[in-house]
Every structure is written in structure tokens, then in C-alpha cells.
Amino acid sequence: MTVGDCGATTPAAEIAEVLARRIPGADVDRLTARIAELKLSLRHAVGLLAHLEAHPDALSSGDATGSAALRRLLDVLAADHPAVQRMRCHNCGAQTELRYRRDGASICGGCYRQTHMKVCVRCGQMGHPDIREGDGIVCTRCRRNDPDRKHPCARCGTVALVAYRIDGRPFCQKCGPHRLHTCSSCGRREQRAHAMTAHGPICPNCYRRGREHQCVQCGRTTTEARRADPESRTWICYRCWTPPTMTCTNCGQLKPCARGSASGKPLCSTCSSRRPPRTCAVCARSVQPQTTLPVGPVCGRCYRKIRRHPHACVVCGETRPLVGVNDAGHPTCGPCCGDTRNWVCRDCGRIDLLIAGTLCLTCNVKDRVRQLLTGADGHIRPQLGGVSELLLDEYTPEQTQEILNGCQWIRLLGKLIATGEPITHDALDQLGCGLHVHHLRHVLVYAGALDERGEGPDGLEPWLRTLLSTLPSGCATVMQRYASWSLLPRTRRRAARGQTKTSTLKYVRTQVLVAHQFLQWLTANQLSLADTTQHDVDTWLRQGASTRLRLRDFMRWASARGLVADLEVRWLGRQGLPEQILDEDQRWALLRRCLRDATLSLRLRTAGALVLLYGQIPTRIVELTVSEVTTAQGDVYLRLRDRPVLLPPPLAAVVTQLIAANAQPSNGQRVRPHQVWLFPGARAGAHLDSGHLTKQLNEDIGIFVRPARGAALSDLAGTLPAPVLAELLGISISAAARWTAVAGSDYADYLAACRDLTQRQPHDTHD
């Protein structure tokens, strides 16, 4: 006897009443009819009613410990009431068809197969049984990789498993016709089914949504989670999960092993990510192979070399990547070496090294860029046209592929495009003030997607808000007043006069950070700003680098407003000049290395020579353009300020080589249009960062800019008058006069000569 045969006095009515109280807007009669459709036995209906009364959250928890009657009821109710959650797998949490039970809970087919793994007779490892072979079984992995089941695809030519057969012709999974369905969960039409459930096909979004869980440690909701505790039915994401500590079967060390525990061969993360080294067929090095070509395993360096440098094939005569050898031992292209894999690009038809056996690198990059920049309407908005040209025209395919694979700023761009909203400076400000956001803003401005906001204080305010949010309320108030009433107004006035540069903003950030560090030090030592003494300031200055002397501006501002006593912080300027001079012998030794050492990069050799010879600072060096280097009658001149300076022949040769290397780079990088910088940077249209250049000079050559520049200016000031020194090198007349005083010379003779020349000018003109 079923519940539907017993009339209204059966538990069906009682079950419907319980459900009506927990489901808003539910109709009791319809619920009774839906329960009757299940055709539950009286015993199962009574058990279901008891379970519902004992578990108030049975409709929304997705608990898999309920009976099969509850699972069937939830499947029926979920189709009519979105608030009802279907039962989830007790092991993996997947919201799918639960056909099996284990330890009193329902599990999916995948988890059931994990508990019924057998030893494969082919590979000898634990695997899921697929077919029987003799007295043993063959696992699904060996069955899937069986070469007898693989055939060349009729469309792309890839040797793969046959997923479709149309008119007797085999097609792989990618080239076969994909049926479009209506998602049984969200109702969207013309969607590719990601999974087929008991209620019909579901789209990828609904599939992932059904597998989302909240981590019990970090609170993050993600699909990449596992059971933290089977008894408490909690979840933990893979970021917080610590694998069990076991002895790795490869390295023999006791480490957390996330892989191989089911097969009895645990592997630590280091060994599982490391492929066994093999001998490269091109360079004969024992390294981890990048791929396997007809010639044999090939390392990454040789693979890129083969791709970038195609040659004429000795068989067909076409210029193609030579990936194999013929019987005579001559290098040949893919189709001519007898390899059966696909070598023809599906889009352009070129013979090349293909990605996934379908597209060449150029076509693959074009598809990925188009997919990235395409909005919800299926079109690339005109605002992003310049970004497409930048990625496809100004970069090589290898560079664009690296950007698409690993750059954070390209991911931020994809998120902005996915919102469907126009990309503005305000939208970028909401992403924060990190380096990735700054780089993305620069790319969008360079590509014409955004107007240049300028190097004014607008770029400082988002960064300042983020910094102040990390400070205690008292320190944040002082820093807010200092920045808003002192630094930002001065920066705005400089911007109005057109005197703001990138170095200006970096200097302002340094002042803020130094004041921030000082306030943090006071807080850590339980001191207040009002009680700070000269001893405290001197102690903090001695514990750090000379950059801490930038605290002088903050202390003067705080003292003027009565926040701190009148304390002294010496100026990082004139006082340090005589102490920061490099020994003359060391200077010439470093200069000879810059001019003669061919193992150093050309830009470091050029920059180091400019520092050691002319006392130029990296901020000015990176702003040099190619147009400032001129040639006249075999001599090379470099304009450092208003007048060109004749370069010595060794330095002129290095500068000429640097310009030629920028015009024809050897690393495969394309020459960007309108390339004007003598020291181009990695960012599109930007020069090299001065801080990065300073760090490279220090680490690679051993040139510390401050003492090296001091030695150069002291030497020049001993031979040139201060006005000439200022005019040639681009420094102020006061700075030139100070260096003349340091060198122990004056320019009285120069002034006298100028006065005599001025007195003779009228007579010379009359003659």
C-alpha cells in the first residue's frame, strides 16, 4: 500500500503541512499531489515525516544522511521552489545524482568508484575498473590511452579518442557537433551542457554553483574545497588544507603528500610537480622536456628556438620549423618527416608548431585576445581597440602569450570587461592602488582607452587612503592632516606649473612613508608625538638608511602646529656631499669595466659611464631619448641639457651599439612604433624605471650612484668653471658652485676672460 491510496488521513497530508510551514508561498494541495507522485510506502512516509520533524533544516542543509525518500522529495521540490536545496554527496559535496550509499549516507558515482579501486593488470597501479582482461581488470586510464581506440580526427587530424562518428568519419571531442540544451537549473537556452543530471542538463555556471562551499578557516566561498571533517560536514578550501604528512616515495622525505595516497605511492608537492629529466634531442642537455617532437624530447629553450627560427626544409623547400629528421639525417619539417600528427593551423593554414594540435601560436593568441576583450554583447567595444592593437601588433606572439598566462593586470582588465561597464579612472581607483592597477592604467592610457590623468596628486589620493586605513585612528588623523594640508597642496601647485614628474610623486610617497614609519616606531615604543625628544629622533634615524632624513619635512610641519617640540633633523643635502665621493682609482676601474666588459648589458654600461663621467643621476638618464644623440663628422654628441656634449670614442661606440640593439633586439621582441627612449622599459611607451636602473647598477657592476656621481662632479668642477659645468650637465648654478668649492677651485679667471671679451665686442663689431 502506498501513501496515495490512504486518503487524507495518511502521512502525506501531514508531510505537506510540515513543508508548507517551511516553504514560503507553497500550496498544501500541490505539495500533497507532489508527494503522492513519489508513491512512497507507508513505512517510508512515516520515516520521512519523522526525519522532517527532527531536522528543521532538512530542506536547505543538503545533508546526505537522510533516507532515499527524503532525497527523492528534495529533487521534486527543488524544481518548483528555489529555496529548497537538493541533497549533496556526503564525500565531495557535489549536487548530482546520488545512486549509492556508504556508511549511512548517500554518495555520488565518482565517490563510490573511489572506494572500489582495483589493481590494473597493465600499469600495475590502483585504478577504476573499466573492462576485464584475462583474470584481471584494466583501469579506465589504460583503457582511455589504448592506441587501438584512437584515430585521426577527420577535421583537425589530431590522433585522439573518437567522440563522434558522422557518416562513418571519426571526430574528436573538440571538433564534433555539440548539442545545445536548456539548463534545467537556471533556464537559459542554447547552452552547452556541462553535466547531465537526473533533472536534465545543467550549464557550467550552475554546475560550479552547486559545488561551492564556504571554508571553515578563511570563510572564502569556492568550488575548490574538500571535507574538513566528515562527521561535522564542514568544508575547507585547498589554500587552508594541509595534506597528510607521509613519507614521499620519490625523495624519501617526510612531507605533506597531497597526491598518490590512494594508490599507496604518496608524492610530495615538489616531486609531483617535477617531471623526470630527459636528454634534449637538440642540445643534448639532461633537463625537463618542454614537449616531444618527431626528433625526440626537446627542452623549452630549444623549443622556442625552433619556433622562432624556421628554415628551409630539405624535402619540400618550404620555410618551416624543422622538428624532425629524414632517413639521411637532414632536418625536415613536420609533414615531411613522416609524423602523423596535425601540423596545419586550422585558421591560417600555415605549417607550424601548433597549440593543442589546432592553432599556431599567432592564431591562438589572436583568439585569446579576442575572447578577453569581447564583452557580454559579443563585440569588442571601440574603447578597447587600441588595447587589441597593442597586444597583437606591438608585442610578439610569445610576449602576448606570457602576458595572457601570468600577468595580473590582464586579469584585472578581464574582470572590468566582464562587468559590462565603461572603464574609467574611477573604476580603476576602486581596484586599489597596487602595482598591477598602476600598470593597467598606464596600458589603457598608452592604448588610448583612457585620457591621461597626469602625474598630479589625483594618483596619490587612492594610495593615501589605502595607507591610512592600516593606521591607528590617532596616527591616521595626524597623517591625514599632514598630507591634506601640506603635501597635496604643494603637489597641486607644482602640477599647475607643469613641474610634476614621476620622481616628484615618488618623493612625496617617500615623505609619507617615512613619517608613517616614524609614527609606527613611536607607537611600538609606547611614545606619543607630543612627548618625542631629540634623543628619540636621533635614535630612530641611526637605526635606518639615509632615506629616514626625509622626516625633516614632517617634523617641521608638526613643530609649526605645536604637535611636537622644535626638534632638529639634518637636511639630506649639502652636508653629505664631501663624504659621498668615490676614490679616484675605483672610479676609473669601474669606468674601464663599463667601457670594455662585453658581458654586461649595453644599457648598464651606458648608464654606468654617464654616472662616472658626467655625474648624471638615474632619473635623468632614463629620460634620455634617441633624438638627443647626434652625429657630426664622425663624432657622437649627447645633449644632457641645452648644449651637446662630445662623447669619448669608447663611450660613443657603446651608445651607438645600444641604439642599434633597441632598433633590432635579439630576443625576438618587436620594435614598438615611435620608440624614442634610449632606455626603453617593459611597459608600453615608457622608459626604464630609475629605481630599477639604480638597483642594477649597484648589484651588477658595483656602482653606487651617490659616491660615483660625487667623484665625477668633483673632477669636472676642478677643470671647468661653474657656469659651464651647469650649462653642460644640466645642474643648477648653485650646485655647480658647491662642487667647485668641494674641488678647491674658483672661476675668477673665467669671469675675467668673459669681461675682457665683452669689452672687446664693440670694437670687433666695428671692424
CATH architecture descriptor of the largest domain: Orthogonal Bundle
Which segments are poorly predicted (pLDDT under 50) over 5 or more consecutive residues?
665-674, 761-767
The strand line-up of the biggest sheet is 31-32-33
Quickly give the structural class.
alpha+beta
Helix count from the secondary structure assignment: 29
What is the CA-based Rg, rounded?
Answer: 37 Å
The amount of beta strand, in percent, is: 5-15%
Largest sheet: 3 strands, antiparallel
The span between the termini is 134 Å
Shape: globular
Number of strands: 33
- CATH fold type of the largest domain: hpI Integrase, Chain A
Helix content: 40-55%
CATH top level assignment of the largest domain = Mainly Alpha
Integer average pLDDT:
80
Number of domains: 6
Describe this protein with a few key phrases.
767 residues; alpha+beta; 6 domains; 33 strands; disordered C terminus
3D structure, described in words:
A hairpin with a 2-residue loop joins β13 (195-197) and β14 (200-202). Strands 31-32-33 form a three-stranded antiparallel beta sheet, with no helix packed on it. It has a two-stranded antiparallel sheet with strand order 1-2. A two-stranded antiparallel ribbon has the order 3-4. The chain has six domains: 3-109, no CATH class; 118-171, no CATH class; 289-341, no CATH class; 363-453; 459-568, no CATH class; 584-752, hpI Integrase, Chain A (Orthogonal Bundle), CATH 1.10.443. The protein is globular and about 120 Å long. The protein has 29 helices and 33 strands. α1 runs parallel beside α3 (42-54) and α22 (602-614) packs antiparallel against α24 (649-663). With 767 residues, it is an alpha+beta fold.
